[in-house]
Amino acid sequence: MLPAQRIRVRVQGLVQGVGFRPFVYGLATEYGVTGFVGNDSGGVFIEAEGHPPALDGFVAGLRRQAPPLALVEHVIIEVTEPLGEAGFRIVPSEGGARRDALVAPDTATCDDCLAELSDPACRRYRHPFANCTNCGPRFTIVTGVPYDRDATTMAGFAMCAECEREYRDPVDRRFHAQPVCCPACGPTLRLLGADGRPMPGDPVTTAVEWLQRGCILAVKGLGGYHLAVLADHERAVATLRARKRREARPFAVMAPDLAAADALVHLEPEAIRLLTGSRSPIVLAPRREDAAVAEAVAPGSRDLGVMLPHTPLHHLLAAQVAQPFVLTSGNLSDEPIACQDADALRRLAPVADGFLLHDRRIHVRADDSLVRVFRGREMPIRRSRGYVPAPVAVPWMFPRPVLACGAELKNTFCVAKGTQAFLSHHIGDLENYETLRSFTEGIDHFCRIFGVRPAVVAHDLHPEYLSTKYALDREDCDLLAVQHHHAHIASCLADNGHEGPVIGVAFDGLGYGEDGTLWGGELLVADLETFRRAGHLEPVPMPGGAAAVRQPWRMAAAYLDQIYGDALPDLPVTNRHKGNWATAVSMARTGTNAPLTSSAGRLFDAVAALTGVRDVITYEGQAAAELEARVDPAETGAYSARLGEDTLIIKSGDLVHAVAEDVLAGVAVERIAARFHNGLAAVVVRAVRELHRQTGLDTVALSGGVFQNVVLLERLAHGLEQAGLTVLLHHRVPPGDGGISLGQAVIAAARERATT
Amino acid sequence: LAHGAGGKATQTLVEAVFVDAFRNPALESLDDGALVDVNGGRMVFTTDSYVVSPLFFPGGDIGDLAVNGTVNDLAVCGARPLYLSAGFILEEGFPIADLRRITASMAAAAARAGVQIVTGDTKVVQRGSGDGCYVTTSGVGVLDRELTLGVLSVRPGDAVIVSGPIGEHGITIMIARGELDIEADLTSDTAAIHELVAALLDAVPVHMLRDATRGGVATVLNEVAQAAGTAIVVEESAVPVRPIVNGACELLGLDPLYVACEGRFVAVVDGSYADTAVEVLRRHPLGEGAAVVGRVEADPAGLVLLKTTFGGTRIVDMLVGDPLPRIC
Ligand SMILES: [Fe+3]
Ligand SMILES: [Mg+2]
Ligand SMILES: [Zn+2]
Ligand SMILES: [Zn+2]
């Protein structure tokens, strides 16, 4: 027999808070290896001693048999002197200056915990805070690293003897599960009336009674407060809408189980996988015609966002309600969701009839993630709870630590070092002060927990973005301004691990262009380092600037004026805005507060207004979303549009012209919407083919918020593939501005790699 | 061009070029006027150039503007305006009748403000290299009261007052250009505010005064918040805006907080005197619409926040250049 050997092993990656040490302990026992395992701020450290074949098996198992939530990135081994010790131990955590260990995302309740929840014999029967090393709150309760109970918002809850025993027992599922607790020692659930007075009795049971009576309930979730009402209760949902001062943005619905979700929406296998997975996002799926939800839940939409319970509290609530209920973010209109109790009680008091809450503090606000399935694969729309802060793996190095500040609306930021990019949770619209604070505090928190001191700070080119101004105020770093649509395409490249160069189609609302106009319907030839604007939609004025975004009819006015001039035919949209039409036109003609834009989003706006779908919006992208929802899938006609001769200018006005003619001819909106989508896709395909001819590039990256429109996306991707081109889509980060910061980060790194 | 819009670009230009070249203590405070010692007497000295288009508009012309503007710059420094100079740059072929009209309204404005135009200069430039007529006025006034006006006196708890409804001048000018198909029964607010200012200074402890011209009230508030290292929290519903101005702003997609005034000022006063200050202002015809619009707070330092009518808190930022939508 070979003599015993001893090795020192360092395991890096997502290895804390995921049951890694008990797993190592079990593995050591399995292979008869002695030594110890522990956590420090660099990850997991192990010393293992045994005979070579056993040691080999042990090391191989570290990767191969790792627990489900773990993400082993590196296993570094060095040989040392055997000590001849007996047994294997788990040693206490060490704090330290290095911050390489990863914080895990919040994870949906596992099957074992769920079984305990419904087992009357178990001491965690109906315990709303049950969790274990395989599930439970993480990111939203972590206040620092290393990941230990003291560095979470569970620090104030002293474990009872029974929980302590489980926590210390290496073979227990709760071994070193930092948020471990039970009814005897954990947080307390309470139900408060609208006036803040505590209600007697079982909080869940009473809360369910209230819901069933049509009341609006504020419920404290993992990353913030939600507002809940029965999904099929017309009056209650309408009341919630009115009280939230939110006209039309669709509400998400929580279904008690998969069968109930399946009764609401059509679910393909990937959607089921996402719904039931540990990240538990809202999945946007085609709504069934007979879905039992009130009209006001998702007006004007063919889709419905559904999710399943992801915490014990939601499981208890859902099981007892036994039918789908709206679970939407706890805020008023455009504010961030409330996550602190006092703030929630104050802000949500005018909305909620009661509060179901507890005393475990939320340290980081995290919205629900929102995803959909496109061509059998996940396409994120909002990447937040359950996904963050797991790193987005990219195959490139970040030579120096990067902070990328993102855009203005739907902001996320990104910190990156080594080979890891940490894309933040959804921060929101920075113009709101509370949101700006989450942005600056979030950056500090990420830099702290991941041990990043940014040497390069990337920001958007737009001088008025608050994220740009934040970047310019930072000291001791190199600044890099990144053009918005280049960042979109780079985020798609990063998403796909593709270096480029590619032909990029970046379609969105607005982004600041290198020429000082507002871009948004762009054809780029781009790689990670640089880009060239190879073509774009024909620029039109936006009469009233931001007002033209809020009021799509103004875009119709601008387009129609370019098309018809003074010979404008008698169109319904003109008549609906008689009083202001001439002013909008005069602003467009004189350039008075009418910046030029090549935006695809504004083109959709013009068509939505022109067809009577929507003249004024109450949330971003509403007009385009409602136009998409009207598309007649059977219509194969397509409007044609010219391409400019030398430069690839897409004459988008031709499409609007054709729409106007069909409106005058009395063609149904559904057919017009379809012909417009088909026509736009067709002309973009033609433009891309021309670029392909010029450059020889045969890969096309599609990015930007407009590509949440799956009708356009499908037609465009199909057309490009028919032309023999390879299409890159988004699967891991959103195509919208939520992905911008990752794009900025990888561009910053590519520039550094190129110059060093 | 953004460098003249009155926002952050202007501020950067001023700091980078002019302060650097002319460095001295009187200049560096960057107030509307400079406080200088003349033989032991305290004088305020200021200068301003006027380049408005059109030259004539409802409620005034470039002449009124040039007199009132400089008088107001003296007034917000706490001075009693005394003498002005006037310089003209005329484009070749500029009609004499128009020039007469302008000088007549300057004389009238000077008489109303109780100042004398005591010296002047005229230059003619080639056709095409000017915009008809530019006017530069300089003014001196005497500071005959003890006061410590300036952003450094601003502190948390102070009240922020606007002397009347805002945005009328800027909107009037936009409409008067005649390019927009828009009608509004609106006149410029151009006026000399020295009497109103004096009444306020006599009545309450004032910590800061500034006239809200280019860049509007929002820009003044940002300058104050940044220089004082405090927050300013404004109640949207308290900001005085005439419905007709509001309507025009909505139509034009403008925020009245950023629209220029020529006869309104922002005052920061000791919080306990807020009501008295408004009462005093409202007694004067030019201050009838005066209102407390917000408060100075300690945090978040350097930011201006707007409590919206919907209950949200929006950041009212200093614009870098022309307003451009930030929406994606
Ligand atoms: Fe964008
Ligand atoms: Mg001035
Ligand atoms: Zn579990
Ligand atoms: Zn316990």
Descriptive overview:
The complex is a heterodimer of chains A (756) and B (328). Chain A has 23 helices and 27 strands. With 756 residues, chain A is an alpha/beta fold. In chain A, α13 crosses α23 and α15 packs across α20. Chain A is globular. In chain A, the strands form five sheets. Chain A has a ten-stranded mixed beta sheet, with helices on both faces. Chain A has a six-stranded mixed beta sheet with strand order 25-22-21-20-26-27, sandwiched between helices. Chain A has a five-stranded mixed beta sheet with strand order 4-1-3-2-5, with helices on one face. In chain A, a hairpin with a 2-residue loop joins β2 and β3. The relative contact order of chain A is 0.09. Chain A has four domains: 86 residues, 2-Layer Sandwich (Alpha-Beta Plaits), CATH 3.30.70.100; 182 residues, DHBP synthase, CATH 3.90.870; 173 residues, Nucleotidyltransferase, domain 5; 155 residues, Tetracycline Repressor, domain 2 (Orthogonal Bundle), CATH 1.10.357.160. In chain A, 33% of the residues lie in helices and 21% in strands. Chain B has 328 residues and is of the alpha+beta class. Chain B has two domains: 112 residues, 60s Ribosomal Protein L30, Chain: A, CATH 3.30.1330; 165 residues, Phosphoribosyl-aminoimidazole Synthetase, Chain A, domain 2 (Alpha-Beta Complex), CATH 3.90.650.10. A seven-stranded mixed beta sheet of chain B has the order 9-11-8-12-10-13-14. The radius of gyration of chain B is 19 Å and the shape is globular. The two termini of chain B are 25 Å apart. The mean pLDDT of chain B is 90. Classes of the chains: A alpha/beta (756), B alpha+beta (328). At the A-B interface, α11, β20, α14 and α17 of A face α8 and β14 of B. The complex binds fe (iii) ion (FE), magnesium ion and zinc ion (2 copies). The site of one zinc ion (ZN) has 7 residues of chain A, from α3.
